Amino acid sequence: MKMDSEFVKLPLTFDVDRMMQETSQFEEGVWQPHPGRHAGNSALPLISYGGLDNDDFSGPMQETPHLQKCEYIRQITANFGEVLGRSRLMRLAGGSEVPIHVDAIYHWHRHVRIHIPIVTNDQVIFHCGTREVNMQAGECWLFDSWRNHKVVNHSEETRIHLVLDTSGSSRFWDIVENTLAYYRNNGDYPSPQLLDYMPGKQASILLEKYNITPVLSPGEVEGLVEDIIYEMRDNQANDAIKVEALAKQMLRFCKDWRMLYSLFGYEEKGIPQYLSLLKNTKQTLSKMPFDVQVKNGQLSKTILFARVFTAAISPVVRQDFAQALNG
Prior knowledge:
The chain is α+β, with helices and mostly antiparallel strands. It is 37% helix and 21% strand. It folds into 2 domains: 7-195, Jelly Rolls; 218-325. It has helices at 16-23, 65-68, 71-79, 106-110, 170-186, 218-234, 240-264, 271-287, 300-309, 318-325, and strands at residues 7-9, 12-14, 32-33, 41-49, 61-63, 84-92, 97-101, 112-119, 124-128, 131-133, 141-143, 149-153, 159-166, 193-195. The strands form 4 sheets. Strands 3, 4, 5, 6, 8 and 13 form a 6-stranded antiparallel beta sheet that branches. A 4-stranded antiparallel beta sheet has the order 7-12-9-10, with no helix packed on it. The protein has a two-stranded antiparallel ribbon with strand order 1-11.
């Protein structure tokens, strides 16, 4: 998600010893490799689609058995009072890195990731945009995933973070804005409040149920596309004629998507038409012998395909969506 700053450290802190105790119970065999197969990267699902060991972003989220074994981590997760999507423990082995990248898919357009370091040291460096930070154990950080970012573990120790994905309510973003304003006025972050471990305390966690629809509405498609067009136009390094040529084709797609949606909505018989439009539009754009960059340096076509086309139609969530609606 785009933010006004590369990093924000929220005024919260946590019991590191207790988090380490709960994390240490998991044997090596339950940790999953990174879906991109990045060396040294692994994760343990805590909130996932169906509560299973997977990396899915979409569909009804449930707690995994791993999270239910972690009383304090559940308390931390519930304490935010936010609706949470896919959340995990993430490991980065010594001498490894998370390669530089931008989070461009649909999920990240409206989600931010909360990072709570559990096991770390001063040689683990998080880079985002032009800044870098060393997140200390027990702290609580956000970062702008729309900027180029990477993490490098220069030590021999395996780093472990608790990461929670959320879109955030207005209350959450008020806290973020107030924290950032304090930082800008004072040159430091406000003093954090400790969330103590409460043995036996039951925690209720809010979980995403509707995070994507079987077919994106025309309004959402237009919003996603128009944001890309805005970034193309706002990047002064781009050729204005090329920008407008691409923008024209992107807006044609939006108009045709609205037409199909007006006819079919979520109906099964509309699926071939939606898929045909996506295929034909991608072919048309791919044949255009040029591209332009959005503000983070990524190619506009790449962002369009990743953010919009891969999420525009999701037949796999249709059954889950219908079941949820029918109670």
